[in-house]
Design goal:
Length: about 500
Amino acid sequence: MAVIASVSGLNVAQPDLAVEFGASQSAILWMINLYTLTLAALLLPLGALGDRLGRKRMLIAGLVLFGLASVAGGLAPSTEVMLGARLVSGIGAAMIMPITLAVITSTFPEEERGRAIGIWTGVAGGGGILGMFLSAALVDVANWRLLFVLPVVLVAVALAMTLRSVPDSREHSRHAYDTTGALASVAAVVGLIYFLQEGAERGWSEPLTLVSLAVGALAAVFFVLWELRRREGALLDVRLFRARGLAGGSLTLLAVFGVQAGIFVVLFPFLQVVLGWSGLLSTAALMPMAVLMMMTSGLAPKLAERVGPKATMATGIALSGAGLGLMAALVSVDGGYPSLLPGMLAMGLGMGLSMTPSTEAITSSLPQERQGVASALNDVTREFGTALGIALLGALLSAGYRDAIGERLDGFPPEAAGPAREGVANALDAAHTAGPQAQQLVRMARESFVDGWQQAMWAGVFVMAALFVYVALRGPERKARGTEGAEAAQALTV
């Protein structure tokens, strides 16, 4: 919860950060996304290093680093310090995350593992929203800087529980640590996410955008070829993706968590700036979606046992796509919260149904002795998806807003038009310099935000439609009890 709440908690303070630091929408997006980018890039390398150095030792070090970085973020005097704090927080989170699911999957017996993973998924999916709720309460009651208090408290509790309850274990591998693979994976993640985020901001044909795409793509190809060569000594044995459960579960988590993270980036400015709600009320507005997500995460294992994981995942994906479509079609400035609610409810149901069977498909595809790999892979897909979703949907929102507002600013004074192009929160803050045109500027900024919103939502619908087709054709099949890991074992012998 500490790690996930830090992904989503800063969304509550977007307008405050824009005004406090004089930051553009793009800079705010980097404050949010730098954490998830760092987390996604370092999960595999630091997870594998923790296996060798000792999982408990790595977890304790990660919690301490994460806590100190959260304190630095709360005291940050500038955009640069905030970005540095978010970078270090991401490093600490990457030291923490790979251990969590591995502890569950290696501890619970087969007949109880599905329920345990369901609880873990519910905390990861809905716990982030509950974390935002507490953060919003702190922001509204006092100051946005206090939202960093929650991760510090959670880390302190987690550290005490780790010292008492988590056993110390490590893997003794006959292979050297895959340093080359680790560096290639970091380059691939950073290059591809930077391309997605900055492409919409700078332009898809700009030299820096194209260079980041080339670096990310070449690093990804090199990583796959290198890992195939390393085989058993690989950081991530890519042959495992021949297993349908592993591939289908990973793609589903990648897309679902990407869409969920992108939705939060879009929802909070709409509720706070377009509708004028407080951070606490905006977070409370997400509770129906969070409750449905957590409830269906717990029910999904039973449904998967009755109708199969493929049907359960496909149903969840279809509901999520329908929810995005409803939000894109119905949202408007005048429609307010009721124009969001049907889509949010469908999204909550869909994400809860798809996440738990996807996670179990990954962990059950690997044998017991490889659950550390399963946990790291599960975490990488979730966090990489989160970073991709924030980068892509957030960039589409920013680009759509900028295109829409640019056509409407003719005749406005430069001191109002300049900030208005940076983001909707900046536009509302600059409205007092627009004189008699102030109300017109506010209205145009809100309508332009909705235009960008719709562009981002339709992109999410397209992603979910493509995922639905894949899962329907190649999703994980129902396995007989006791056959977990057989498919992956077969893949490794090819």
